[in-house]
Amino acid sequence: MKTVLNILWLVLCGFWLAVGYVVAGIVMCILIITIPFGIASFRLAAFTLWPFGRVLVPKPDAGAGSFIGNVIWFLLAGLWMAIAHIVTGVLLCLTIIGIPLGLADFKLAAATIAPLGKDIVATDDPRAIVRL
Questions:
Q1: pLDDT digits (tens, 9 = 90+) for 34-53
Q2: How far is CA 60 from CA 2, 21, 36, 123, in A?
Q3: What is the tens place of the pLDDT at every residue in 77-110?
Q4: Is residue 105 within 8 Å of 88, Cβ to Cβ?
Q5: Residues 29, 50: Cα–Cα separation, whole Å
Q6: 122 vs 15 pLDDT, higher one
Q7: pLDDT value for 132
Q8: Residue 52 in contact with residue 5, Cβ under 8 Å?
């Protein structure tokens, strides 16, 4: 089922959202000082292409640098990419078939806001278990 959802996702909106991340990543890598944000953008582009079956989890060793980086990321690209995910998520949720895709878009919008200090892992990875 994950494969079917990923293929539908890729055709309907995943490719274009990933292109947005790649463009943001290229711009950030050109600016030299923002290369870490460019790398994060490329990681999110890969996550956006094939989101079902993967999840974003916090790194246990992430510190204050990740927090500061996330604030800068939010101002440079995170807000704009989160808006793109929310808009496409709402549009996908207008159809019954698109509801699971729209929910994945909302999950990606949350991931886009603060991606630094996090890893992308498969859902069957032990780190993907939510600790309450």
A1: 898 999 899 999 999 988 88
A2: 28, 25, 19, 17
A3: 889 989 999 999 999 999 898 899 999 999 899 8
A4: yes
A5: 23
A6: 15
A7: 37
A8: yes
Task: For tokens 């886009």, name the residue.
Answer: 112
Q: What residues does each domain of the chain span?
A: 2-125
CA angle 7/14/40 to nearest 5° reads 125
Cβ-contact 52, 2 below 8 angstroms: yes
Which structure tokens are listed for 28?
């950030």
pLDDT given at position 130? 61
What are the DSSP calls for the chain, one per residue? -HHHHHHHHIIIIIHHHHHHHHHHHHHHHHTSTTHHHHHHHHHHHHHHHS-TTEEEEE-TT--HHHHHHHHHHIIIIIHHHHHHHHHHHHHHTTSTTTHHHHHHHHHHHHHHHS-TTEEEEETTSGGGSPP-
Instruction: Supply the angle between the helices 99-113 and 35-49 in degrees, to the nearest 10.
Output: 170
pTM exceeds 0.85, yes or no: no
